[in-house]
Write a structure and sequence with these properties.
The structure is a single chain. By secondary structure, the protein is mainly beta. The protein has one domain (3-175): Beta Barrel (Lipocalin). The protein has one helix at 64-75; strands spanning 3-8, 14-21, 24-40, 43-58, 87-99, 102-111, 114-127, 130-140, 162-175. Strands 1, 2, 3, 4, 5, 6, 7, 8 and 9 form a nine-stranded antiparallel beta sheet that branches. The longest helix has 12 residues, at 64-75. It is elongated and about 55 Å long. Residues 5-175 form the Lipid/polyisoprenoid-binding YceI-like domain.
């Protein structure tokens, strides 16, 4: 069994996020700081990546003052608490090959120092010296102490309710 370690290329990797509420959704990006992907006998076998929570950008709010206010709220204790937790982490615990480029990934996602397992499908393309991998992770924010305007913890929110789940659409590029 031969294992090769590929380094994530941060400049070519990205996370697009989407958070939904009763009256619509917001979206943006978060930077990937670093990471690795492991291949064993030509198949994805492991890896990890570090998310820079201070890099959250909101793309759909075009008013500068509103965008800054919203970003500051995402950086606050209500959400990512970036002053105390400037990084979030994902580590693969299992990688099940399904077919050609399809895998089921199981891993641990750590946000605000709290770790929970997640499972998602990923598309992985392996070429000479390069791996591209993408998948959508559905995160229940309340498991990470993000309870602001959650219907599980506050009643009568009406149209101010924010849904508990948000999406991280992860795209990784890694090279030898």
């Amino acid at each position: 069994m031969e294992t090769k370690k590929f380094e994530v290329v941060s400049a070519e990797s990205s996370i697009d996020w989407t958070g939904k509420k009763v009256t619509g959704a917001h979206n943006g990006t978060i930077a990937i700081k670093e990471g690795t992907l492991d291949l064993t006998d030509g198949k994805l076998s492991g890896g990890h990546f570090v998310i820079d929570t201070r890099s959250i950008i909101i793309l759909d709010v075009t008013d500068s003052a509103t965008n800054t206010q919203f970003a500051d709220h995402l950086f606050s204790e209500d959400f990512f608490a970036t002053e105390n937790f400037p990084e979030a982490f994902f580590a693969v615990t299992d990688s099940a090959f399904i077919s050609e480029t399809n895998y089921q990934i199981t891993g641990n996602l750590t946000i605000k120092g709290i770790t929970h397992p997640v499972v998602f499908r990923a598309v992985v393309n392996i070429t000479d010296g390069k791996i591209t991998a993408s998948g959508k992770i559905i995160v229940d924010r309340t498991k990470y102490e993000m309870k602001f305007r959650s219907g599980n913890f506050v009643t009568n929110l009406g149209d101010t309710l924010i849904y508990n789940e948000f999406e991280l659409d992860v795209k990784l590029v890694a090279t030898l």
